[in-house]
């Protein structure tokens, strides 16, 4: 099983990657044949969508703009499961995540066809200072809806109450940890 992690937090050791790793670790339970690839968007030299619309040509295979994100997008085609994550910034996804998200436009072919192979599952891992997990539901609906339209079966885990930005040592609620674990198991089903 191939699992792709795309971290939209600028902090490579922050709350978001920790939550994502909890989900990823649960995919390994009773299965040694799990291959995990992690991409930290903030470390990559890539741009948001350039609006060239080359991806809408019949001859295109996906996003035709070549930079560091090209390998991540190629891995997304091959992966069985995708775990994306971002911290809420100003009520929304981070800029790094939005630039990645826009590049998924390349998976929409001419006439709205879907270039991503069917049957993939995805988990969206969100961390936020606000304690209530449902506080940014409208924004999360947008992210889920967009991935769903690319053909992915999507579920979300939200870790709230991460105020203070402490690195890697904030205790998540036990319900959040169990949901992360459950979603990792679900990715394998
Ligand atoms: C620039 C900035 C904006 C933020 N905006 C929000 C916000 O609108 N709502 C919220 O609940 N938390 C907000 N936060 C808190 C982060 O979402 C939270 O601490 C998150 O867990 C950080 O993830 P990380 O450890 O992966 O960096 C903000 C943090 C920063 C640095």
Give me the secondary-structure topology.
Layout: E1 2-7, H1 15-27, E2 35-40, H2 69-78, E3 81-87, H3 95-103, E4 121-127, H4 137-149, E5 153-159, H5 174-188
Parallel strand pairs: 1-2, 1-3, 3-4, 4-5
Helix pairs in contact: 1-5
Flavin mononucleotide binds next to α1.
Question: What are the salient characteristics of this protein?
Answer:
189 residues, alpha/beta, Rossmann fold, 5-stranded parallel sheet, 5 strands, binds flavin mononucleotide
Any overview of this molecule?
By secondary structure, the chain is of the alpha/beta class. It has a single domain, classed as Rossmann fold, CATH 3.40.50. The chain is 32% helix and 17% strand. It has helices at residues 15-27, 69-78, 95-103, 137-149, 174-188; strands at 2-7, 35-40, 81-87, 121-127, 153-159. Strands 2-1-3-4-5 form a 5-stranded parallel β-sheet, with helices on both faces. Helix 1 crosses helix 5. The chain is globular. The mean pLDDT is 95. The structure holds flavin mononucleotide. Flavin mononucleotide binds next to helix 1.
Give the overall form: globular
Task: Tell me the fraction of residues in β-strands, as a range.
Answer: 15-25%
- Work out the number of β strands: 5
Bound molecules: flavin mononucleotide
Note poorly predicted spans. none
Tally of alpha and pi helices: 5
Helix percentage: 25-40%
Level-1 CATH class name: Alpha Beta
Task: Indicate how many domains the architecture comprises.
Answer: 1
Q: Note the run of SSEs as H and E.
A: EHEHEHEHEH
Spatial strand arrangement across the major sheet? 2-1-3-4-5
CATH superfamily: Flavodoxin domain
Structural class by SSE content: alpha/beta
Gyration radius (Cα, Å) is 16 Å
How confident overall, as mean pLDDT?
95
Any idea of the CATH topology?
A: Rossmann fold
**What's the CATH architecture name?**
3-Layer(aba) Sandwich
Can you summarize the main beta sheet?
Answer: 5 strands, parallel
Distance between the termini: 11 Å
């Amino acid at each position: 099983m191939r699992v792709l992690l795309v971290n939209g937090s600028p902090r490579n050791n922050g709350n978001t990657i920790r939550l994502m790793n909890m989900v990823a670790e649960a995919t390994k339970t009773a299965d040694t044949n799990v291959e995990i690839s992690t991409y930290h968007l903030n470390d990559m030299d890539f741009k948001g969508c350039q609006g060239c619309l080359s991806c809408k040509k019949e001859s295109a295979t996906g996003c035709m703009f070549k930079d560091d994100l090209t390998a991540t997008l190629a891995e997304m085609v091959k992966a069985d499961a995708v775990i994306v994550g971002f911290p809420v910034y100003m009520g929304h996804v981070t800029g790094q995540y939005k630039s990645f998200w826009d590049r998924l436009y390349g998976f929409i072919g001419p006439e709205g066809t879907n270039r991503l192979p069917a049957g993939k599952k995805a988990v969206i891992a969100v961390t936020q200072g606000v304690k209530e997990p449902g506080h940014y539901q409208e924004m999360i609906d947008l992210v889920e809806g967009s991935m769903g339209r690319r053909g992915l079966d999507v579920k979300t885990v939200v870790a709230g109450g991460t105020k203070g930005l402490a690195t890697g040592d904030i205790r998540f609620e036990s319900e959040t940890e169990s949901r992360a674990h459950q979603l990792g198991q679900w990715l394998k089903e």
